[in-house]
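dude i think i finally got it to work??
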Amino acid sequence: MEARAIHRYIGTSPRKMRLVIDLIRGKAVEEALTILHFVPKHAAKAAEMVLRSAIANIQNKDEGGRVDTGTLFVKEAFVDGGPVVKRISPAPMGRAFRIRKLSNHITIVVSQRQGAVSVRAAKSRPTAKTEVALPTAASKS
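look at this
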């Protein structure tokens, strides 16, 4: 099962947003949220909001209502360019410089790993220790 969230017309340039989105592509949802929360870029706030929305969408899509977030991962995350707003700034000698204010659209798709154990369950499960028989001096002769 997968769900998507789209945020359109964000007022940062697509190049700056791609730097942030590239950090979370393919990661587990909990790890991606941690990364976005602590990245010191302004674009990370908008990306975190979209990721949280995608998580809420997949939880609402499930009829049971409870999806373990430990089994979710970011399947797709991409940034498209939005409309460019053109402004004019006065320049010396009667000229004018054009200012291009860029915007972007973010799309994040979240999916469940097939047959995967949640991250929390995998950490809490005790690992079985295997014993290896070492050769002794009696077995060599």
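Strands lie at 2-10, 72-81, 85-90, 96-101, 104-112.
im so relieved honestly
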